[in-house]
Amino acid sequence: MADIDIVTAMSYPNIDSLPQHVAIIMDGNGRWARQHGLPRLAGHWEGATNAHRVVEILFDRRVKYVTLYVFSTENWDRPKEEVEGIFQILMDRIDEEVEFAQRTKIRICHLGKLDGLPPELRNKINHAVELTKSNKAMTVSLALNYGGRDEIVGAVQHLLRDGISAGNVDEALFRRYLSTAGMPDPDLIIRTGGEMRLSNFLLWQAAYAEFYSTPVLWPDFNCDEVDKAFIAYRERRRRFGSVTPSD
Ligand code: IPE
Ligand code: IPE
Ligand code: MG
Questions:
Q1: Which atom of ligand 2 is nearest to the CA of 30?
Q2: Does the C-beta of 67 come closer than 6 Å to ligand 2?
Q3: Which pTM was predicted?
Q4: Is 146 a pocket residue for ligand 2 (Cβ < 6 Å)?
Q5: What pLDDT shows up at residue 5?
Q6: How remote is the CA of residue 165 from the centroid of ligand 1, in Å?
Q7: What does the pLDDT look like over 142-180, one tens digit per residue?
Q8: Is residue 75 annotated as a catalytic residue, yes or no?
Q9: Which of 51, 60, 186, 188 is 20 to 30 Å from 143 at the Cα level?
Q10: 148 CB under 6 A from ligand 1?
Q11: Per-residue pLDDT at 17
Q12: Does the beta carbon of 194 lie inside 6 Å of ligand 2?
């Protein structure tokens, strides 16, 4: 890994302009595979390799929270072979990623529903979350079998089961029922592959996130592309509905 202080000082003179939480819609694996004359699963394999590389880059940049959109609740509509293939890739690679997380003191979280995932994968995710739960260097959340609407409906069900009355429900309480409870909202949402939509990602949490979309396909999203996204982020003026003296 690059020397943190040198990278930070050279590229980012104003540390405050760095996003604390970066969430990524890792799109374009299928198109990348087609471009290279390969089956779609080869694109997913390459996408997983790149997810590791980008986490390392963001670690070096001292980003504290990284959330990766790995598999949406709508992705079940894909052909069975593709869905099973994606889960197999995760199974093949997760042990290595957990070792990496332990070495670097990264906490792994899971967003979404474990129900419905293959039991072996479910066990491995539970193990990863449990083993790394006290790590403090960075939090990497895997949105896997995740959908923003599903998360909100789940939060409402949970509130009702807890017997919370309508008058006691406010935003602060509601966010504690989301799978991101305890985490700051994303500052920057990056989408690769060129689409300009959220595709059911972090619907509640994205309220004031800065959105950055690039046509670069996920397996090609490298260090230079991270820098471009950060530069674009630094140039945004975040008002949160307010006005600033320069407005
Ligand atoms: C994103 O890449 C990965 C998942 C949704 C699992 P895609 O598989 O959607 O790639 P494209 O959009 O077809 O290129
Ligand atoms: C979003 O990509 C989901 C993930 C990256 C996991 P999709 O490829 O599923 O999104 P749509 O279908 O183009 O909206
Ligand atoms: Mg896609």
A1: 8
A2: no
A3: 0.94
A4: no
A5: 44
A6: 41
A7: 999 999 999 999 999 999 999 999 999 999 999 999 999
A8: yes
A9: 60
A10: no
A11: 85
A12: no
Place of tokens 């260097």: 137
Read off the pLDDT of residues 59-95 as tens digits, 9 standing for 90 and up: 999 999 999 999 999 999 999 999 999 999 999 999 9
The number of the ligand nearest the C-alpha atom of 40 reads: 1
Point out the catalytic residue in the list 27, 145, 150, 187: 27
Give the C-alpha separation, 54 to 167, whole Å: 43
Region of 94 (left: φ > 0; alpha: ψ -120 to 50; beta: rest) is alpha
How deeply is 225 buried, as exposed, middle or buried, from its count of CB atoms within 10 A (0-12, 13-18, 19+)? middle
Reading the block at residue 56, the tokens are 């390392």
pLDDT of residue 7: 44
Q: Is 69 in the pocket of ligand 2 (CB under 6 A)?
A: yes
- The per-residue pLDDT for 16 is 60
Contact residues for 168 (Cβ-Cβ < 8 A; gap 6+): none
Q: Domains in the chain, start-ordered, CATH in brackets?
A: 19-147+187-232 (3.40.1180.10)
DSSP 82: H
Give the position, in ligand 1's atom list, of the atom nearest the Cα of 31: 14
Residue 10 has pLDDT above 80, yes or no: no
Looking at all shown ligands, the one closest to residue 143's CA atom is 2
Residue nearest to atom 11 of ligand 2 (CA): 199
Range in 6-15, 82-91, 117-126, 133-142 with the lowest mean pLDDT? 6-15
